[in-house]
Amino acid sequence: MQIVNQWEERAAKRTAVALVTRMLQRKFGELPARLRGQIEKLPQEKVEALGEAMLDFTRKQEIQGWLRREA
């Protein structure tokens, strides 16, 4: 059962990362690989928080600032 839970958690995180990355790219254009990598390393809770925070972002640089503060 623990293995199944771990698999489900990983799948949920991959889904959240993919969604947030797509939304950021739609809003700001292509994201640098380094920035995408930083997002992928975040725990799922932080990825979800980034998804909410990005609604207030007006510039791509705000993503990096958020990552410095929150990661």
Q: What can you see in these coordinates?
A:
The chain is mainly α. Helices cover 79% and strands 0% of the residues. The chain is built from 4 helices and no strands. The longest helix has 27 residues. It is elongated, with a radius of gyration of 13 Å. It starts with a helix and ends with a helix. The model has no long low-confidence stretch (mean pLDDT 93).
Number of DSSP-assigned strands: 0
Which word captures the global form?
A: elongated
**Termini Cα gap:** 30 Å
* Share in helix: over 70%
Tell me about the largest β-sheet. Answer: none
Number of helices: 4
Order of helices and strands: HHHH
Would you identify the regions where 5 or more consecutive residues have pLDDT less than 50?
none
- The percent range for strand residues is under 5%
- Give the integer mean of the pLDDT values: 93
Radius of gyration over all CA atoms, rounded: 13 Å
Question: Helix/strand/pairing class, anyone?
Answer: mainly alpha
